[in-house]
Structure to design on (151 residues):
């Protein structure tokens, strides 16, 4: 038996749109990241490796902001990557309290090997939308994410 919410027109439309957004995001994410399990990586671990691969060494706080993880969660993710020898924590020579996270050669080799197939999977998923639809979706997502009008 299907149950529907019987609120105002605005509430019903907003809830319906939200559910569609969440279902689409989860479905696309699942399909795009399926290959990560073969490398023994979680989505968060992949995000850390990818950020370091493209941006270079970063402090833990900046990595957390880039991949949208809390400081406690990012610590666990980096700990696990460090145990596997994929990243290293490097203490600053100027300020010993400051650590940067950098890829090891094994980490660089791993992310360099899997990033192309990850990109292909994203291109394939986004290919159901036209170029114009992809641009519009990007604009709408940015606007929604910022909570204000963005052009």
């Amino acid at each position: 038996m299907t149950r529907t919410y019987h609120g105002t027109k605005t509430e019903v439309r907003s809830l319906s749109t939200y559910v569609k957004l969440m279902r689409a995001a989860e479905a696309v994410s699942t399909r795009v990241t399926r290959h990560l399990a073969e490398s023994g990586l979680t989505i968060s671990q992949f995000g850390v490796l990818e950020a370091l691969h493209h941006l270079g060494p970063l402090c833990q706080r900046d990595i957390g902001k880039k991949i949208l993880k809390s400081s406690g969660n990012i610590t666990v993710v980096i700990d696990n990557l460090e145990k596997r020898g994929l990243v290293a924590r490097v203490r600053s020579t100027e300020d010993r309290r400051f650590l940067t996270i950098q890829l090891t050669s094994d980490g660089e080799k791993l992310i360099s090997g899997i990033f192309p197939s990850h990109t292909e999977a994203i291109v394939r998923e986004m290919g159901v939308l036209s170029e114009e639809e992809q641009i519009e979706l990007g604009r709408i997502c940015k606007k929604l994410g910022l909570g204000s009008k963005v052009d």
